[in-house]
C-alpha cells in the first residue's frame, strides 16, 4: 500500500512535468495546427522583468509580443532583449488600442494590486484574455467586477497562482482530497520574507499593500488547498515591529481559520520574517512541506515515508503554458478568477477580524 502510494504520487508529477513541455507545435482535437498565443505584459517591474519575461522564453505555447509601460526608458531595453515590435508597445493611456492588435491574445496584468481591476477590465473590453497577478484585487467587489467583465466580453481570466501548477503542491492537494490519512485536523502554514524597502507600494494601503494580500495569500492557500475546503470563520491579529514603515498596512498578520469539517488552521504572514512552511496533521498521519510556495524547490514528506520532490524547469513557464493551452482548447483554467475571489473573501474577513478584534463568520 505504502509503495503504491509513492508510485502514484510520482506519476502525478511525471504527468504534470510532461504536459508542461509538450512539442513545439500544438495540434487541436481536429488535427489543425495551433499558433502560439501572443502575450503582453502590463507593468515591467520586478516580477515581469526577473521572472515572467525570462519564463516566457521557456514556454511552448506563448510568445512575449507586447509591453505596456509608463517608463519610456524601459522600451529600448525590452525591444533589444525580446524583439518586441514598435506597434506592440503601449503606455497606460493608449493601452485600450491594444484591441486593434491581432498579435496580442493575452494581457498579463503585473501591476500593484489596486490597479488589477482597472487593467483587467480594460483588457477584457479590448477583447483580450487576461492573466492577472495575485492578490486578484484589494476587494471582493473588484474581483466580482473583473470576473463579470471577462464573462461579458467572452474572454478567460486566470490568476497567477503559479503554485497550483506545481506538482509538489498538487501532490498535497491530492492527499487532502483522497484522504489516505483520514480527515485534516490541523494545518500550520506560514509565508513571509524580510522586505527592507521603505517606500514601496507594498507599504502603501491605497496601492493594495500589506503582507496579507502579498505573502499572506500563500499561507491562506496552504490551508485552503490542504483541506480542500473553504473556511467558515476567521480570527486575525495584525502587528508591526517597524511602525515607521508599516503605519498604513500590517507588517505581520496571524490568522486562525475554521473549516466545515472541523479542521483548523493557524497561519502567519510577514514582511519582517523569512518563513515558508506548511504542516498538515490528519487523523492518522502528517505531511510537511518546506518550502511550500517558493518559485522552485518546494518539497516535503509524509508520515508514511513518502517524499514529495518534483523538479520542474520553471513554475511560471508551466503556469503560462497550461493557461495558454486552456485558452486554445477552450477548457477550464487551473486557477480561474473565481479562485482568486475565494481568497479575497477570506482576506476581507481577516482584515475585518483584525480591525474589530473578533471572530468573523464567512
Ligand atoms: P514592482 O513594484 O516591482 O513593479 C510594479 C510595476 O508597476 C512597476 O513597473 C511600476 O512602474 C508599475 N506601476 C504603475 N503604476 C504604478 C503605481 N501607481 N505605483 C507603483 N507602481 C506602479 O512590483 P512586483 O513585485 O513586480 O509586483 C507586481 C505584481 O506581481 C503584484 O500584484 C505582486 O503581488 C505580483 N507578484 C507575484 C509574484 C508571484 O510569485 N506570483 C511575485 C512577485 C510579484
TrEMBL record:
Keyword annotations of the record: Oxidoreductase
InterPro entries: Gfo/Idh/MocA-like_OxRdtase_N, Gfo/Idh/MocA_domain, GFO_IDH_MocA-like_dom, Glc-Fru_OxRdtase_bac, NAD(P)-bd_dom_sf
Any GO molecular function: oxidoreductase activity
Oxidoreductase recorded as keyword: yes
Residues of the GFO/IDH/MocA-like oxidoreductase domain: 179-287
Domain Gfo/Idh/MocA-like oxidoreductase N-terminal residue range list: 38-161
Short name of any one Pfam family annotated for the protein: GFO_IDH_MocA_C3
Domain of life according to the entry: Bacteria
Family: Belongs to the Gfo/Idh/MocA family.
PANTHER family referenced in this protein's UniProt entry, alphabetically: OXIDOREDUCTASES, TRANS-1,2-DIHYDROBENZENE-1,2-DIOL DEHYDROGENASE
Protein name: Glucose-fructose oxidoreductase
